[in-house]
Design a protein that fits this description.
The structure is a homodimer of 84-residue chains. By secondary structure, the first copy, chain A, is α+β, with helices and mostly antiparallel strands. Chain A has a single domain, classed as Mth169, Chain: A (2-Layer Sandwich), CATH 3.30.1280.10. The first copy, chain A, has helices at 19-30, 54-69; strands at residues 2-12, 36-51, 75-81. A 3-stranded antiparallel sheet of chain A has the order 2-1-3. The longest helix of chain A has 16 residues, at 54-69. Chain A is elongated, with a radius of gyration of 16 Å. At the A-B interface, β1, α1, β2 and α2 of A face β1, α1, β2 and α2 of B.
Chain lengths: 84, 84
């Protein structure tokens, strides 16, 4: 068993409004960053997962997203497994 | 000017406690994911930045982090510029 460093990105679905992203965009404009658009805000998680292989670590991380880390109705997620 | 897609990752500094990460770790253990450890939770932002070059887009995104997106005392950030 090896401890794999797993990165999980959870973002609001593209088709949905993202009120937090809109608030950040307005705040950036007010600070003078007029060149920014289409801001979306999600979560980034880092976790160590003990597993027999990279594929198993990725599968377990996806199961964690399905059960807890992401809302299947409103969010999409990506899983990337780093070095063991 | 080109619109670059910029990804920003904002994470709690390694030396600091991360109460949200600890809460997620405990919840994962309670759901049967005993193989997970060292959970840390941060933010992931996607933004379009109009700029003359990739380097300028990255510099503007770092300025946004310094001014608004990250707390310099408690958080670190990474900026990655995608395709224009």
């Amino acid at each position: 068993m090896t401890a794999y460093r797993v990165e999980v990105r959870v973002m609001p679905r593209a088709a949905l409004l993202d009120p937090q992203g809109q608030a950040v965009e307005h705040a950036l404009h007010a600070l003078g960053f007029g060149e920014v658009a289409r801001v979306r805000v999600g979560k980034h998680l880092l976790l160590d997962v003990e597993a027999a292989s990279r594929d198993e670590a990725a599968a377990r991380a996806r199961a964690m997203c399905d059960r807890l880390l992401a809302n299947p109705v409103t969010e999409d997620f990506d899983v990337a497994v780093g070095t063991g």
